[in-house]
Amino acid sequence: MSDPFLSPATPAEPIRLRTLVLLRWFAIAGQLAAVVVAKLMGIAFPVIPVLALIAAAIAMNLWQGLGPMRRTSARMAVVHLTFDVIQISALMALTGGLANPFALLVLAPVTVAATSLDTRQTVTLGAATMILISLVSLFGLPLHDSTGRQLALAPVLTLGHWTALMIGVVFFAGYAHRVTAELQATSNALFATQMALAREQRLQHLGGVVAAAAHEMGTPLATIKLIAAELADELDDRPELQADAMALRDSAVRCAEILRSMGRAGKDDLHLRMAPLRTVLEDAAEPHAGRGPAVEIRADGPDIRRDPAIIHALRNLIQNAVDFAASRVVIEAETDESCLTVSIRDDGPGYPPALLARIGDPYLTSKRGGAQRAGYDGMGLGLFIAKTLLERSGARLGFDNGGPGAVVTVRWPLDRIATDARAPLGANPQHRF
């Protein structure tokens, strides 16, 4: 199932205007502090133009502060960050160019852009930053100390500083963009996992709701049936009304039968908190039993927790095996004194060796080679969801090749998964009539 809102290609949402304004206030405070310290040290530079540039940043912040501090659009974020790059670059040009020890701060806007904007906007802002740095290196005004001596870097150091800033633009922007994309992908995948688990739990609890409804409605339906039968007996002289009473009685009987059937299934779901290992594996494999490859279960084990999260996770692992199997999937289980081990093997092409270390990461779309089985449409989240849910249940997973296709091994400590079928079910729920 594909969902564009959970795609890793979706760009990060633009940052809030409040964040941009707050970052600019910090920059303004630092710039003013640098001006004061430089004057105290007797360093000569064009003070009025420098203060004018700082005042422009203050004016920008004050203007933005007049409106509501809401999340801005991507276009407005680009405008704000472009303003910051130009303002910082102009300050550098007036205060020594690349010889300014604070020249590294010109990398801040493009780094912020990489965490909140898409690739195209980040590349555009990065290119603008590199152009401005190059112009500053060529046309920056030198600084002078209190004796009038020019403070300047040697040409080779200027070239080295320029190169370092160029590399910094690419490195910081690329690194920040990659980390943000991975965090966003993981967050989206965890959200999809929670949704899948919530769905399984709702399906499980639905049976209990049906059972309760059947129990609660049994008495009113019995009353309707009784009254309808008595009315039918008393309306012998009015056949048309007697037929209506008989139809009402028959409908009440039909409703009672339907609710009795549903309630029986609901009670089974409500009370089935444990099941034999083979039953749980059959439940997990059932949706994929008729999709092509034969699914063979070889499992004789203890009663285990019938947890919807565990069933859903095993179902995802079995689906992945069926999707790429040539003709057969084998599910085996072994139990020793301390562990329960379930292995799922297929006879497909196996995992690409280069991806084995990354199996279970979200959006790992480079699955095993070959065409996917008809009817499959995924987001690359199946193995991630399965791994997350099973690890939360106390299991450890292993992914490998052999036999001849892929092998997934799930191992639980026995005390985390096994249950005692002879244990009491607990108190029955109390109902008010």
From TrEMBL:
Keywords: ATP-binding, Cell membrane, Kinase, Membrane, Nucleotide-binding, Phosphoprotein, Transferase, Transmembrane, Transmembrane helix
Start and end residues of each Histidine kinase domain: 212-416
UniProt signal peptide: none
The enzyme's E.C. designation: 2.7.13.3
Protein origin, superkingdom: Bacteria
Annotated gene: regB
Reaction catalyzed: ATP + protein L-histidine = ADP + protein N-phospho-L-histidine
Taxonomic lineage of the native organism: Bacteria, Pseudomonadati, Pseudomonadota, Alphaproteobacteria, Rhodobacterales
Primary enzyme class: transferase
Primary localization: membrane
Record field: transmembrane: 21-41, 47-66, 78-103, 123-141, 153-176
GO molecular function: kinase activity
Listed name of the protein: histidine kinase
